[in-house]
Every structure is written in structure tokens, then in C-alpha cells.
From TrEMBL:
<protein>
    <recommendedName>
        <fullName>DUF881 domain-containing protein</fullName>
    </recommendedName>
</protein>
<dbReference type="Pfam" id="PF05949">
    <property type="entry name" value="DUF881"/>
</dbReference>
<keyword id="KW-1133">Transmembrane helix</keyword>
<feature type="transmembrane region" description="Helical">
    <location>
        <begin position="12"/>
        <end position="32"/>
    </location>
</feature>
<dbReference type="InterPro" id="IPR010273">
    <property type="entry name" value="DUF881"/>
</dbReference>
<keyword id="KW-0472">Membrane</keyword>
<keyword id="KW-0812">Transmembrane</keyword>
<comment type="similarity">
    <text>Belongs to the UPF0749 family.</text>
</comment>
<feature type="coiled-coil region">
    <location>
        <begin position="50"/>
        <end position="91"/>
    </location>
</feature>
<keyword id="KW-0175">Coiled coil</keyword>
Length: 237
């Protein structure tokens, strides 16, 4: 009987251990299943959020590319506009420059700057010569000097302080010269504003104006001036 009781008791203990282990396994399995159920929705939600962020990034990249293309197009348009504008500016600048030159040539504006003065005097009279006019300064002498100065780049010219304009006229009346109705006796001082070196070189060129006038027995001299001012014809009136 004792042996049977011991065996029964051992069976109970064994069964208890089996049920305990089985309960532990069932409990662990239940907890693991619940954790998977909880973690699965969390992982799915995180994936959706990441996928949404990736889509947003891709959309932003596409938007940036479109904006870049628009920027390049606008930059090209701006370059074309600047090129066209620079061409127009050159044209306008040249027009303004031409207008200023014409206004100076017409005597409508005051002009100041360096230049030269050319002095023409009647030659010494020789009693052996029958014609005294061969020693006098005439309008064609003055015209030669004026034309050469304009060709050399003079921007303004005056005779004995009288500003020359596009409408000016010069007439020789014996020993005097009339400029725009005003008479001037010799010597005649022709002043010109411009590059003094260029003007002087143009007048003194061999076989040029100076040699031609000196050959006509006229006393000729030229001087460079650092600064001179010529008032407009309007101010002189």
C-alpha cells in the first residue's frame, strides 16, 4: 500500500510539473501573440508615414526641378534683354554724342577745354610790289585755317572772340574782315577748342595750311592753350 501511495504521489507531482510547464508555455504563447498583434499595426503605421514622407520628398524634388527650369528660362530671357538693352544704350549714347557735337558745331552751347590759337597778320609791305593785297590777310586764308581745324577735330572755333556757327559768314573788306556782320581788323586770332597736340600737328604739317599761308607773305604763328572758354552764340547776342 505504501508503494502504491508513493507512486500515486509521484504521478501527481509529475502531472503538476507538466501542467505548470504547459501553463507557462500557453501563457508565453499568448503574450507573444498579443505583442505581435500590437507591434504589427505600429510597424504598418510607421511604414505608411515613411512612405508618405518619401512621396513628399519626391514631389518636392520634382517641384524644385520645375522651378530650376523656370529660373534658367528667366535667366536666358534676362540675358537677351540685357544684350538688347546694351545695343540700344550704344545707339542712344551715339545719338546723344552726335547731338552734342552738332549743338557745339551750331554754337548753341558753351564749350571749354584745351586748344590752340592761330594768329594771322598782314605781311610787311614791300614798295617794289605793285599790289598791296599780296600782303594782306584775306578770307580764304581764314577759311583754310578754320576748315583744317574742323577736320582735325575742333569742337568750337572763334575769330577774335566771335564764336563761329554753322550759319556764320566771313567777308573780306580791304584790311578788315567781317564776321557775321561784325568787323575785325588785323591781326586775326583764330581760336579752336580740341586736342591741342592734334590741332597743332594738323596745322603744321609739311605742305599744309601753314606753308600755304606763309607762301602768301602772311605772318603766321600758332600757340597751344591749356584751357579756354567759348560762349554759345545765344549768349553773345
Amino acid at each position: 500500500m505504501k508503494i502504491i501511495k508513493k507512486r500515486a504521489r509521484g504521478s501527481y507531482i509529475f502531472l503538476s510539473l507538466v501542467f505548470l510547464v504547459l501553463g507557462f508555455i500557453l501563457s508565453f504563447s499568448y503574450n507573444l501573440t498579443n505583442q505581435q498583434k500590437i507591434s504589427e499595426p505600429t510597424s504598418s503605421l510607421q511604414f505608411k508615414e515613411e512612405d508618405s514622407l518619401r512621396n513628399q520628398i519626391n514631389d518636392q524634388k520634382e517641384s524644385n526641378l520645375e522651378l530650376q527650369e523656370k529660373l534658367y528660362a528667366l535667366q536666358n530671357e534676362l540675358k537677351d534683354y540685357e544684350t538688347e538693352l546694351s545695343k540700344k544704350e550704344d545707339v542712344y549714347f551715339n545719338l546723344v554724342e552726335d547731338v552734342n557735337k552738332y549743338r557745339m558745331f551750331l554754337g548753341e552751347v558753351d564749350v571749354k577745354g584745351p586748344g590752340v590759337t592761330v594768329r594771322l597778320e598782314d605781311g610787311a609791305y614791300d614798295p617794289k610790289e605793285d599790289n598791296v593785297n599780296n600782303y594782306l590777310v584775306h578770307e580764304h586764308h581764314v577759311f583754310k585755317v578754320i576748315n583744317e581745324l574742323y577736320i582735325a577735330g575742333a569742337t568750337a572755333i572763334s575769330i577774335n572772340g566771335k564764336r563761329i556757327s554753322a550759319d556764320s559768314y566771313i567777308v573780306c573788306n580791304g584790311p578788315v574782315i567781317t564776321v557775321d556782320g561784325e568787323q575785325f581788323p588785323a591781326p586775326f586770332v583764330i581760336s579752336a577748342i580740341g586736342d591741342s597736340e592734334v590741332l597743332e600737328s594738323a596745322i603744321n604739317i609739311t605742305g599744309g595750311v601753314k606753308d600755304q599761308i606763309v607762301n602768301d607773305n602772311i605772318i603766321f604763328s600758332i600757340e597751344k592753350i591749356n584751357q579756354m572758354v567759348m560762349e554759345s552764340v545765344i549768349n553773345e547776342i
